[in-house]
Amino acid sequence: MSKINKKKKFACYVDEARYIKGNLMNNDKFCSLFFFDNSENCYNIRPICEFVLKQLSRSYDIDAISIEDVQTIMYEKLWEDDWHALRTYGEEYSIFTWLYQVTFNTMKKFLEDNGFIKVKRNLTPGNTRLLLNRYTPEGCDLFINLLMPESKHRSLLIDIFVNRMSDAEIMKKLSIDEQAFKKLRCTAENRFKDIILQSPENFEGVLLAEKSPRRIVRFSQLDNCMDDNWEDASWNNPFSDVVGVHLTHAEVQQLAGSFISDFAHMLKWKETDIFVLTERSKGISPKSLAERLGRRRSWVDNRYSRLKRKFAKALDLWINHFDYAHKRQALGGLRRYVSQSHR
Fold this sequence. Notes:
mainly alpha, two-stranded antiparallel ribbon, 16 helices, 2% strand
């Protein structure tokens, strides 16, 4: 291809990208069609979502999410923080090539974060943690002296894991303050991790573990088996540990819906916002909800995504920052409510 044709083709890519980008951020109808319309006569993201989902399904043997799930997740990803992700597109190549890369990376992270897959990463001192606390002082002494050369770092690790000295005792011994101690300990542990990782022996799971959030690995057959038995095992319900009353799954769902509504009212939200949050939380489709409200589908998706984040932040504030007496009083009210409803 000649240089002139390449320039023309690139100019077409840029014009197309600017058209799509501008309309996504400023045209609600275009945005709704792009993310949620499945027809072939308009710009939409569905072919990319289908391709990415097939790739992930083949690679990880999963069938936990649908095309519609991918479309919704990508809408939230690109729309979040006033289209922050979309604004990072730099016009180096076609916007659809860029969307494919973002979709693949976003969905892979989503599946990993939610426990559907576990992606093997290269281990480094930064993404691992030591497991020396699992062992006796004698065991720690054996590992440290076997692997760690003589140095101030080895002496520090021996004081921590073998002599089991407290932080205060070590700071006094070394005549250093807390900040200097933390820095020295971090350097010593990272040096030890680096030695372990470079060792020809495989110490993963013995002395090192990947530093990652605890995940629940889901297996579809086990899920189905648990679902079949859960209906009859209403006594086996973690909610009963909190409120002291054995509830069925349906009753838990009802209480959860009541809590969402009550908490949103406490936040003094508008009735429309409360309605959107509670109905979508019940599983009502955004299309159906949009028809009931006389709104566009994109408005419902946009609003629900914002409300979820506001609700989560408010709930976190209430759980982690309100005083204990206030939460105990609220929990007592919940227990009384459940007890009275079962008399």
